[in-house]
Amino acid sequence: MEWTQDLAVGVTKIDDQHKELIARMNAFFDSMNKMDKQQKVLDMLAFLEKYVVEHFSDEEKLQISSGYPLYKEHKKMHTDFIADIRKIKSDIEKDGFTVATSALVGSTLVSWLTLHIKNVDKGLGAHIKSKNA
Ligand SMILES: [Fe+2]
User: Ligand 1: distance of its center to the CA of 25 in Å?
Assistant: First the structure.
């Protein structure tokens, strides 16, 4: 996955964090695609998870400080995504991974993040910009 201008939310801090998020996601995919040892793949996933948690928490702080009306709904999506990542982690721990699972995991994460940024975070960006204007 690549960060492109159509993913821009318009708030520098959020956009920068999305770029880092995509970089860590790609590092995780690379590790899976190279069929690295299971522990290495899990380390990359943990590295991704850590940033996801940090980024969501920063985004939620911005939502609170800007009085974002959809905070609750947005936070729920974040919580569900973190749960998905933890589920992937426990699945890999339990069953390992194959080329098929890696493709599935890859496309699931990419489509979630792409849609979330385009459909949800962009709205948040517009809200924050309107507050700062
Ligand atoms: Fe978000």
Answer: 16
